[in-house]
Amino acid sequence: MAPSDALVRVLRGSVDLHCHSGPSPFPRELDHAEAAADAQRVEMRAILVKSHHHSTVMDLLAMRDRLADIKTAAYGGIALNSQVGGINPYAAAMALRMGGRAVWFPTFSSGRHIACHPEGDGFPTAAVPVPSARVDVTDDTGELLPEAYEVLDYVSEADALLSGGHLEPALISQVFTAAKERGVRRMIISHPDFVIGADPEQCRELVGLGAYVEHEYGMYDPEGYRKWDPRKLLDWIEKIGPEHTVLSSDLGQAGRPRPVDALLRVSAALLDLGLPETDLRRMTCVNPGFLLGLDD
Questions:
Q1: Are 99 and 76 in contact (CB under 8 A)?
Q2: How far apart are CA 216 and CA 295, in angstroms?
Q3: Angle at alpha carbon of residue 234, lines to 233 and 239, rounded to 5°
Q4: Could you give the CA distance from residue 256 to residue 189 in angstroms, rounded to a whole number?
Q5: Residue 296 belongs to some domain of the structure
Q6: One Pfam annotation, family name (predicted)?
Q7: How far apart are CA 70 and CA 258, in angstroms?
């Protein structure tokens, strides 16, 4: 998609906190270096690359030579699914101390995700069969696991981004409450109306803890995989406020639009619906820049 000069001006310096480039056991449209190079064409500031299966920090270190001349920076993190040992503070500490900027609590290993997608229904099929198991974050009494507190301490130490993953709203609130007590400043809940099942009131409670609400423009792209009406997204923005909202792609999967193309289409649609340019910049540039630790 060829962007207009005006749209590039609004989106210059934007940050994608949810890029699913490869490598991955799931088929991917492009790898991390290709995703960063594509983001460079609209002068994006940075991308955060996410895998459900492994730390993307090591991927990026291995791609260092390919990334060196790309102006859009690429950062990695780790999702605490079964493939890395679940709530594994050692894996989280290594990823963060090797330069990672984010820790996602369980995504497809969470009980909530498994309930929404039994047998993987409605979720991409892995090109490489990978064993998976449920990962819980609390014990039989409902208390957070000791390992969860350790992970939160490492996130605080690194001043990194903490994501609630695909946990249910009550568990995200429990995790974020503990995180705030430990000094975590950067927290995010992804796609509240997909898998998570959080309504605006629950999201406002999380915002009260210091969290941001992330919506995925891949779901609102007319060429995307859900094709939700952008008016729905605008309604969310109005209810939560652009100052607490982030727009990210959740794209990179094989057969789906490239993240940049979806960003351009959905941004144009929001502006056509009357969203102020300043609000769009806040949600695509300012807020994610803070969450990724690029700004304070």
A1: yes
A2: 22
A3: 100
A4: 23
A5: no
A6: DUF6282
A7: 17
Kind plus residue range of the DSSP H or E element containing 116: helix 111-116
Tell me the mean pLDDT per 10 residues along the chain, length 296.
Answer: 80 98 96 98 97 98 98 98 98 98 97 85 76 95 98 98 98 98 98 97 98 98 93 98 98 96 97 97 98 96
The single residue listed with the structure tokens 């962007």 is 3
Total domain count for the chain?
1
Instruction: Report the predicted TM-score, pTM, of the whole model to 2 decimal places.
Output: 0.96
Q: CATH code at 58?
A: 3.20.20.140
Angle at 281 between CA 278 and CA 282, to 5 degrees: 85
CA distance 268 to 281: 12
Tokens of 34: 């290709």
Residues 6+ apart with CB under 8 A from 70: 33, 36, 37, 40
Question: Do 50 and 77 form a contact (C-beta atoms < 8 A)?
Answer: yes
Could you tell me if 55 and 91 are in contact, meaning their C-beta atoms sit under 8 angstroms apart? yes
